[in-house]
Write a structure and sequence with these properties.
Layout lengths: L3 E5 L12 H8 L6 E4 L11 H17 L4 E3 L3 H5 L2 H4 L6 E2 L8 E4 L5 E5 L22 E7 L16 H5 L5 E5 L5 E2 L6 E3 L6 E4 L1
Amino acid sequence: MSTHLAIFGDFHLGAPFCPGVQWVIDKLEGHPVDVVIFTGDLVDMRHGTAADIDAAADLFRHITTEMNLPVVMIWGNHDAAQDLASQFPDIPEVYRPRSTDAVDKLSVPGVPVDFYGINVAQRLDERDVVELFPPAEEGTAVGIFHTSLTGEWSKKPCLPATREALYAKGYDAWALGHVHAPHDFDGPVPMAWPGTGRMLFWEV
């Protein structure tokens, strides 16, 4: 049975270019979705406020309680810069890595997909963490990664990696964050930055 994913990232709540909370809700309505994936940078480090953090938490509560959709998320470099992980509440049905030093395998009850993700540690995080992603096991696997890849699409490096190294893990898809311009790669499995203001709908 296929699993339907809705993927967005680089939201930057508080920034003038953020599409807004209602945009997320409107995009999710009317689509067959089993899991919502967020690929990092929830609140903008320059313009975001405590009220924006509260609004982001309320958005995830709305998705999980009013729309009955689980959320799988990671923290990006803007989130790391303001230590958002320590300020953000634990919300039932929101699944996220707890560490910046390991890739967590995130499982959603009733969903036949293994999600693998790691949090960014700091604003400028140039670590090579690709080796921390384990090879795919039996079943469906999706990687969630806030990365600049090899740098051509981003002004700031973040968890650099090559597409070839990610494809070699054997996952069924890679949902990326960090680059604001939408970009889809041609390759053996789906790999894309949703970018700011675009939501992807994938079936895995």
